[in-house]
Design a protein that fits this description.
Structural class of chain A: alpha+beta
CATH topology of the largest domain in chain A: Jelly Rolls
CATH architecture of the largest domain in chain A: Sandwich
Oligomer: homodimer
Strand content of chain A: 15-25%
Largest interface: A-B, 36 and 36 residues
Number of helices of chain A: 8
Largest sheet of chain A: 4 strands, antiparallel
CATH superfamily of the largest domain in chain A: Jelly Rolls
Number of domains of chain A: 2
Shape of chain A: elongated
Strand order of the largest sheet of chain A: 1-8-3-6
Order of helices and strands of chain A: HHEEEEEEEEHHHEHHEEH
Helix content of chain A: 40-55%
Radius of gyration of chain A: 19 Å
CATH class of the largest domain in chain A: Mainly Beta
Distance between the termini of chain A: 55 Å
DNA sequence: CGATGTGTTGATGTGCGTCAATAGAAGTGG
DNA sequence: CCACTTCTATTGACGCACATCAACACATCG
């Protein structure tokens, strides 16, 4: 456990404001995990003994259907924590977690977390704010999945990945398209088709994993009153 | 504000364990609202000044699409609270709320809630547990919406509305079917058709707003490997 | 008893998934 | 460095689950 990792964890929204001593106590038994390639961190239903901070790489949280189909619930990038809330869910992970390529993760035992949480009243408030935010995002997802078309969800994704107000912007997709597609509740083929449609309309240009939004206002408009993969 | 209402609120999971004094303080400025018929309590984006306890009747939380279509996020029955988490979301309601018929609601100012929350450390933990539970349910919804068919969602609803283990059970639908349908992310017509299909298979019988599950095991099996509205 | 609202059932349309073929991109090994 | 495999992404053809549109049955209520 290097000092820079310790400092990085301290920058997570949840732990910002912790004193150096509290931080050290939180990470007393934490360990750094260097994961190569794709590896499952935990499965749904597993007994939760730790939660994670992403130092580098990426992680996907997902569910599996009875048939084995996968739905990505969330994609986690460096700087974020995940599975903290599990402490309050009877101690079992509600989702699967797996890395997306080489990653460096900090694994923090739930016990240390609970101890820090109880000692620091302010952190409970931050925790509540953090979980409430996730709740809000999930409500957005549910709305999008039921009230929006595939095209609208993809457009919404592009818009939320780029800064507001600016007429044009660039997005770099760090994870594979099928993962993003699953995150959006769409098949990879459909995702590809939507991008193609937007490309033909001159709203975006695509080069490998980089998407350039050429006309943000146009994309917003398209999202509102078209959102269809049809001509 | 009657004493029985006060006691009722104290039975909500979130407030179980509060002392009588704390409870009185929490409800110091609370007021009882008798709502006739269908009435909007608050709109998405409204500044949140209170959260609610359902004493009788029912409430639906929902979102609206740009086109005006509605998606019911949650149906709340007597004994439950809603919109508590809003305190931590910048003070704006993330959903619409409206009553489903005559209801008696207790409206509790957020200020009183925050004060009680800060004075009672244990309640923060209960709050975390409560929100985490909602989080978990929403994850289930997202999974169901993306990985299950309409039939599977309906069957899942019937199964979770009835006690486990018992071979047969009765469900009384207190709210209109189109509301339940929207909650399940399904059109009312489809909901009706699924029930018809299950009726023909002899798995359930329907009489008005009462559904009798005749063969729970059969329903579970149907959910797993059929789940289709087709013959 | 007409009026209005809720649920059911039938006919038709369509958005998106499925299946399949191909094109690139990226990694592997001689 | 170039053949070879392997994997991701794209594009086309087709099918299906569910929505949509519409007609009707059946309540409840003034």
């Amino acid at each position: 456990m290097q000092e820079q990792d310790l400092a990085a964890v301290g920058k997570a929204p949840l732990f910002a404001g912790l004193s150096w001593e509290e931080l050290q106590q939180l990470l007393a038994h934490a360990r750094v995990r260097h994961v190569k390639g794709h590896e499952t961190l935990f499965a749904e239903g597993d007994k939760a003994q730790a939660f994670y901070f992403v130092a580098s790489g990426a992680v996907r949280l997902y569910r599996l259907s009875a048939k084995g189909d996968e739905k990505v619930i969330e994609i986690l990038l460096p700087g974020s924590t995940f599975a903290e809330a599990v402490v309050f869910l009877g101690g079992h992970y509600p989702v699967y977690a797996a890395t997306l390529g080489d990653s460096r993760l900090i694994e923090i035992p739930t016990q240390d977390f609970v101890r820090t949480l109880k000692a620091n009243g302010e952190m409970a408030m931050k925790m509540l704010a953090s979980i409430s935010m996730r709740l809000h995002h999930l409500i957005n997802d549910v709305q999008a999945l039921t009230l929006e078309t595939a095209g609208q969800r993809v457009a919404g994704y592009l818009l939320e990945q780029s800064p507001e107000g600016v007429p044009s912007a660039d997005i770099h997709m760090v994870v594979h398209k099928n993962v993003i597609a699953s995150r959006l509740g769409v098949k990879a083929e459909t995702f590809s088709r939507v991008l193609a449609a937007l490309r033909e309309l001159g709203l975006i240009t695509v080069a490998g994993n980089d998407i350039h939004i050429a006309d943000r206002a146009g994309l917003e408009k398209w999202r509102e009153d078209v959102g269809s993969t049809r001509p």
